[in-house]
Write a structure and sequence with these properties.
With about 100 residues, the protein is an all-alpha fold. Helix content is about 70%, strand content about 0%.
Length: about 100
Protein backbone atom coordinates (compact mmCIF):
# COMPACT_ATOMS: atom_id res chain seq x y z
CA UNK A 1 0.00 0.00 0.00
CA UNK A 2 1.34 3.43 -0.96
CA UNK A 3 1.20 6.00 1.84
CA UNK A 4 0.07 9.55 1.13
CA UNK A 5 2.77 12.21 1.24
CA UNK A 6 1.60 15.43 2.94
CA UNK A 7 2.02 18.89 1.47
CA UNK A 8 5.08 20.36 3.20
CA UNK A 9 4.66 23.81 1.66
CA UNK A 10 1.91 24.98 4.05
CA UNK A 11 3.76 27.18 6.53
CA UNK A 12 0.54 28.61 7.98
CA UNK A 13 0.22 25.55 10.22
CA UNK A 14 1.48 25.49 13.80
CA UNK A 15 4.99 24.18 14.41
CA UNK A 16 3.51 20.97 15.82
CA UNK A 17 1.36 20.44 12.72
CA UNK A 18 4.34 21.10 10.45
CA UNK A 19 6.46 18.62 12.42
CA UNK A 20 3.63 16.07 12.16
CA UNK A 21 3.63 16.57 8.39
CA UNK A 22 7.37 15.90 8.23
CA UNK A 23 6.93 12.74 10.32
CA UNK A 24 4.22 11.59 7.89
CA UNK A 25 6.39 12.56 4.90
CA UNK A 26 9.43 10.56 6.02
CA UNK A 27 7.26 7.65 7.17
CA UNK A 28 5.60 7.52 3.74
CA UNK A 29 8.94 7.79 1.97
CA UNK A 30 10.38 4.96 4.08
CA UNK A 31 7.34 2.79 3.38
CA UNK A 32 7.29 3.61 -0.34
CA UNK A 33 10.99 3.89 -1.14
CA UNK A 34 12.93 1.99 1.52
CA UNK A 35 14.86 2.17 4.74
CA UNK A 36 17.22 4.92 3.59
CA UNK A 37 14.49 7.37 4.66
CA UNK A 38 14.44 6.19 8.29
CA UNK A 39 17.03 8.73 9.46
CA UNK A 40 14.79 11.52 8.18
CA UNK A 41 11.85 9.98 10.02
CA UNK A 42 13.91 9.87 13.21
CA UNK A 43 15.01 13.51 12.78
CA UNK A 44 11.40 14.65 12.21
CA UNK A 45 10.31 12.72 15.31
CA UNK A 46 13.11 14.35 17.31
CA UNK A 47 11.91 17.80 16.23
CA UNK A 48 8.33 16.88 17.13
CA UNK A 49 9.52 15.75 20.55
CA UNK A 50 11.32 19.04 21.11
CA UNK A 51 8.16 20.95 20.23
CA UNK A 52 6.17 18.89 22.74
CA UNK A 53 8.75 19.24 25.51
CA UNK A 54 7.70 21.48 28.41
CA UNK A 55 10.93 23.41 27.87
CA UNK A 56 12.78 22.82 24.63
CA UNK A 57 16.48 22.18 24.99
CA UNK A 58 18.15 24.76 22.77
CA UNK A 59 21.38 22.74 22.84
CA UNK A 60 19.55 19.61 21.67
CA UNK A 61 17.79 21.61 18.96
CA UNK A 62 21.11 23.03 17.78
CA UNK A 63 22.53 19.50 17.58
CA UNK A 64 19.52 18.47 15.49
CA UNK A 65 20.21 21.42 13.19
CA UNK A 66 23.84 20.32 12.78
CA UNK A 67 22.77 16.80 11.74
CA UNK A 68 20.16 18.17 9.34
CA UNK A 69 22.69 20.56 7.85
CA UNK A 70 25.15 17.73 7.24
CA UNK A 71 22.50 15.54 5.61
CA UNK A 72 20.71 18.12 3.48
CA UNK A 73 23.66 18.54 1.13
CA UNK A 74 23.50 14.92 0.05
CA UNK A 75 19.89 13.93 0.66
CA UNK A 76 17.76 16.42 -1.26
CA UNK A 77 14.90 18.85 -0.82
CA UNK A 78 13.00 17.08 1.97
CA UNK A 79 16.05 17.49 4.18
CA UNK A 80 16.45 21.15 3.20
CA UNK A 81 12.80 21.84 3.95
CA UNK A 82 13.08 20.20 7.36
CA UNK A 83 16.37 21.98 8.07
CA UNK A 84 15.01 25.45 7.30
CA UNK A 85 11.78 24.80 9.21
CA UNK A 86 13.71 23.68 12.31
CA UNK A 87 16.00 26.73 12.00
CA UNK A 88 13.00 29.06 11.91
CA UNK A 89 11.38 27.30 14.86
CA UNK A 90 14.65 27.40 16.83
CA UNK A 91 15.01 31.14 16.18
CA UNK A 92 11.58 31.68 17.75
CA UNK A 93 12.21 29.38 20.69
CA UNK A 94 15.69 30.73 21.37
CA UNK A 95 14.53 34.36 21.17
CA UNK A 96 11.37 34.18 23.22
CA UNK A 97 11.41 30.98 25.25
CA UNK A 98 9.06 28.00 25.14
CA UNK A 99 5.83 30.01 25.17
CA UNK A 100 5.94 30.47 21.37
CA UNK A 101 5.94 26.76 20.56
Amino acid sequence: MVKRIPDLSDTSKTWAEQADDFVLYYDACAANQGASWLLGLFMAQQWRGLIDAPQASVDEAKLLVRVLEAERASQGTGWSDLYFRVIKWLDEVDASGPKNR
